Amino acid sequence: MNRCVIIGGAEIADYNRIRRCLNGNDFFVCCDSGLKHVEPLQVRPSLIVGDFDSYEKPETETETIVLPREKDDTDTVYAAREALRRGFEDFLLIGVSGGRFDHTFGNVSLLLYLDNAGKTARITDDYSEMEIVSGKTVEIDDSYAFFSLLNISGTAEDITIRGAKYPLSGAEIRSDYQYGISNEVIPGGRAAVSVGKGRLLLVKVFRAG
Predict the structure, then answer these.
(1) CATH 2.60.40.1240 fits 133-206, yes or no
(2) How do residues 81-135 score in pLDDT, each as one tens digit?
(3) Strands 64-66, 90-94: parallel, antiparallel or unpaired by DSSP?
(4) Are 123 and 96 in contact (CB under 8 A)?
(5) Cα 161 to Cα 179: distance, rounded to the nearest angstrom
(6) Which residues pair with 138 in a beta bridge?
(7) In which residue ranges of the chain is CATH 3.40.50.10240 found?
(8) What's the pLDDT tens digit per position in 164-192?
(9) Are the beta carbons of 64 and 78 closer than 8 angstroms?
(10) Which of 91, 94, 156 is nearest to 117 (CA)?
(11) What stretch(es) of the chain map to CATH 2.60.120.320?
(12) pLDDT tens, 142-159?
């Protein structure tokens, strides 16, 4: 099945970088003011979702789900739930980080939600890519300037990092002590990260340019 790309309304500075992450057969879900990114990203919405409190509801033949303004789920969370209902297995979220921290953190938590559902998901913005490391080993190539492992869901144990400047074996990272920040892949190689128990947020930071 095609990948679902959820487009939020957070600012995007480097549209060229984001466009390189997109495929012609992606299913694009625009959330409210995420519609402002359609033209610079050169994409066509497959579905529009929102309460339209920050963007005017468009007159379009594209399927549109209008949400109430007073609700538990943000537009982005609703979009993810709707995409799950439609059977998508792979997710990319863009325009969902930066600006308001509360929205950013809530959207990062969506990676946990999608991981709980057994789906593959990542967030890409102007500075980094983010994904959850849980039941399988994740590799990182040396095209990234840095990578960090952050605990946003309790305690993670039996953490292993190989092929990096700062390796780990059988380690633990708690949410109240984040020491897994700014590691580096050994030049010319690939780092491998695994978590035996719990989950970590992997943040891969792009090189400048």
Answers:
(1) no
(2) 999 999 999 999 999 998 889 989 999 999 999 999 999 999 999 999 999 999 8
(3) unpaired
(4) yes
(5) 13
(6) 193
(7) 4-125
(8) 999 999 999 999 999 999 999 999 999 99
(9) no
(10) 91
(11) 133-206
(12) 999 999 999 998 889 999
CATH number, domain 4-125, options 3.40.50.1000, 3.40.640.10, 3.40.50.300, 3.40.50.10240: 3.40.50.10240
Cα distance between residue 25 and residue 34, in whole Å: 19
Query: Is residue 8 within 8 Å of 95, Cβ to Cβ?
Result: yes
Please name which of 149, 188, 152 lies closest in space to residue 171, comparing C-alpha atoms: 149
40 strand-pairing partners: none
Compute, in degrees rounded to 10, the torsion defined by CA atoms 55, 60, 62, 66.
40
| 34: its two tokens | 């995420």
Write down the residue that tokens 């339209």 correspond to.
Answer: 52
Residue 42 has pLDDT above 80, yes or no: yes
